[in-house]
Specification:
It is a single chain. This protein is of the alpha/beta class and 437 residues long. The protein contains 15 helices and 15 strands. It has a 7-stranded mixed β-sheet with strand order 4-10-9-8-7-5-6, sandwiched between helices. Strands 1-2-3-15 form a 4-stranded mixed β-sheet. A two-stranded antiparallel ribbon has the order 11-14. β2 and β3 form a beta hairpin. α12 runs parallel beside α15. Bound molecules: pyridoxal-5'-phosphate.
Length: 437
């Protein structure tokens, strides 16, 4: 019997699975790790989603981060519409691209020059090529559970959708493609020291999410980013902060501003595009000038710096002032306090690690002692997360459909939205079980 609550989504999902692998264009959307039918979305407005069955949800995914002002923010919509009316794409430079590059350079420490691309994957992969080309070295170091997009060299112990499905690597990524990728556990200094002891002059780049959020949120321990900065500098390797998720979200100047640690290269995506396909990477002029056409390191894109995406991204960035970040932090404060109380009231052992407005929920017998690395994130009770997710979804609260993802608040979330979510969490906490994992 069709469930009237999801009948239209169910039928669309059946059709989708016949013509799209898994029925979705990006794996985590399929709800595999939480079960049930993904909701097909008809519209988003402010903090709310409406699905094709007419059900409304308070949205804590926000397109996985880009919609920091909420869905269909009037000024972002107006900027995008005005750009559409001027034509979609020219294959030639525009003034708005200059303004966006200047805006990023103004906000982000050490970003003197910027190159726009269309996805975070492209930004990460291009930054690696640039680092290898500029240093003449081959090895890259990444951390287990950090996600830098789905390009071959980086798809090793890559968190996010890959972690969700427990794939150690992906078929189709050859051993040679990852032979120069070295993986270290996050927050582990000795492991990184060992890598540099083994290959003192071969590491082109150490890549990290400076606040990892694709294995759940696992902040760097105090001094860890400083340690990475020091050891890379000492060995002539570059440091990449992949701020695709954190950039323009945790602060105006991302984790670089919060931590005071300036990387050589930074990657952006998500918030920078205002919900449109836009990403970028940036760094000092001396490095960035080595890119084509000024230098020999090739990188290009037909739709790079797309005028509609740039217009939306710029409109969104311009609204993100100090007040905006205070507002986001206040929303996170309220929600985290409410969820913490809900779990405590019902004896559900949970940790909610957090950096500014970025946070995630881990259920484990360790209670409020949050995971320090990917292995500890994997050891959490992802079944319990699935029960929590489904209980919340049934009550109209759309959380990330995976226990390895961050929750996203936007400036469109009102106190009433947050309080309704907290009230629902009290009900659901009573159902998800309190026993040890
Ligand atoms: C989302 C994400 C990416 C990939 O960006 P896409 O636009 O999905 O290709 C890369 N790095 C981090 C840290 C991300 O969160």
């Amino acid at each position: 019997m069709a469930d009237p609550a999801t009948g239209t989504s169910d039928r669309l999902f059946d059709r989708a699975r016949a013509v799209i692998p898994g029925g979705v264009n990006s794996p985590v959307r399929a709800f595999r790790s939480v079960g049930g039918t993904p909701r097909f979305i008809a519209a988003g407005s402010g903090a709310h989603l409406t699905d094709v069955d007419g059900r409304r949800y308070v949205d804590y995914v926000c397109s996985w981060g880009p919609l920091i002002l909420g869905h269909a923010h009037p000024q972002v919509v107006a900027a995008a519409k005005a750009a559409v009316d001027r034509g979609s794409s020219y294959g030639a430079p525009t003034q708005a691209e200059v303004e966006l590059a200047e805006g990023i350079a103004d906000r982000y420490p050490g970003a003197e020059m910027v190159r726009c691309v269309s996805s975070g994957t492209e930004a990460g992969m291009s930054a690696i090529r640039l680092a290898r080309g500029a240093t003449g070295r081959t090895k890259i170091v990444k951390f287990a559970g950090h996600y830098h997009g789905h390009s071959d060299a980086l798809l090793v112990e890559a968190g996010s959708g890959v972690a969700t499905f427990g794939l150690p690597d992906s078929p189709g990524v050859t051993a040679r493609a990852t032979a120069d990728t070295v993986v270290a556990p996050w927050n582990d200094r000795a492991a990184v020291e060992t890598v540099f002891a083994e290959w003192p002059d071969d590491v082109a780049l150490v890549a990290c999410e400076p606040v990892p959020a694709n294995m759940g949120v696992i902040p760097p321990e105090p001094g860890y980013l400083e340690f990475l900065r020091e050891i890379t500098s000492r060995h002539g390797a570059m440091l990449l902060f992949d701020e695709v998720l954190t950039g323009f979200r945790v602060a105006r100047g991302g984790v670089a501003e919060l931590s005071g640690v300036t990387p050589d290269l930074a990657a952006f995506g998500k918030v920078v595009g205002g919900g449109y396909p836009l990403a970028a990477f940036a760094g000092p002029a001396a490095i960035m000038r080595q890119l084509a056409p000024e230098g020999p390191i090739y990188q290009a894109g037909t739709l790079s710096g797309n005028p509609v995406a740039v217009a939306a991204g710029l409109a969104q960035l311009r609204l993100l002032d100090d007040e905006a970040y205070k507002g986001l932090d206040a929303r996170a404060d309220r929600l985290i306090a409410g969820l913490t109380e809900a779990f405590a009231a019902h004896g559900v052992p949970a940790a909610i690690p957090r950096v500014r407005s970025l946070f995630s929920v881990f259920f484990s017998e360790r209670g409020q002692d949050a995971p320090r690395d990917f292995d500890e994130a994997r050891a959490c009770d992802h079944q319990r997360y699935a029960r929590f997710f489904n209980g919340m979804l049934a009550r109209g609260h759309y959380l990330p459909p995976s226990g390895y993802e961050a929750m996203f608040v936007s400036l469109a979330h009102t106190d009433d939205d947050l309080d309704a979510t907290i009230a629902a969490a009290h009900e659901v906490a009573a159902e998800v079980g309190t026993g040890p994992v």
